[in-house]
Amino acid sequence: MVSLESTVLRARRLLGNQLKRLRAMREVASFDARELRDIGLSRNDASCIAAGAADTHERVEAMSRRLGVDPGHIAKSPWMRVDIVRACAQCKRRGECRLWLADHEADIGGYEAFCPNAERFKALQEGASSPSG
């Protein structure tokens, strides 16, 4: 049986996520064409990212850490970060991702079956393990 306390905590978390999403959407709506062009996004792309799951950035960072990729390395390339976040925000398999991230015993290669960024993360792993990376 689900306790009242756990139900209230879940509701607070969901409302908090919705509030984050609304703030992000409001911020994106305030961007003018030049600002969007500067960050390399169309208004539609920016809206999709803002409307995506509130935990998108956290999942990208958690996936990076789990795969041994420095999240700071992704942040150094704005284009790569936008591509990764866009794919993650639009992903329909977030539940599988959350379970995989929570299961530290899971096969490290298991993410390839559900992650739209699998190839990007593989390339980042290879770059991190190269002598110049």
Gist of the model:
The chain has 133 residues and is mostly helical. 70% of the residues lie in helices and 0% in strands. The chain folds into two domains: 21-51, no CATH class; 55-133, no CATH class.
Please give a structural write-up.
The chain contains 8 helices and no strands. The protein is mainly alpha-helical and 133 residues long. It has 2 domains: 21-51, no CATH class; 55-133, no CATH class. The model has no long low-confidence stretch (mean pLDDT 82).
What's the mean pLDDT score? 82
How many strand elements? 0
Rounded to an integer in angstroms, the radius of gyration calculated over CA atoms is 17 Å
In one word, what is the shape?
flat
What are the segments in which pLDDT stays under 50 over at least 5 consecutive residues?
Answer: none
Largest sheet: none
Helix amount: 55-70%
Helical segment tally?
A: 8
**Terminal CA distance:** 50 Å
Element pattern in H and E: HHHHHHHH
Structural class from helices and strands? mainly alpha
The tally of structural domains comes to: 2
- Provide the β-strand percentage band: under 5%
Salient structural properties:
mainly alpha, 2 domains, 133 residues
Secondary structure topology:
Elements: H1 4-30, H2 33-39, H3 43-51, H4 56-66, H5 71-75, H6 78-90, H7 94-102, H8 118-129
Helix pairs in contact: 1-3, 3-6, 4-6
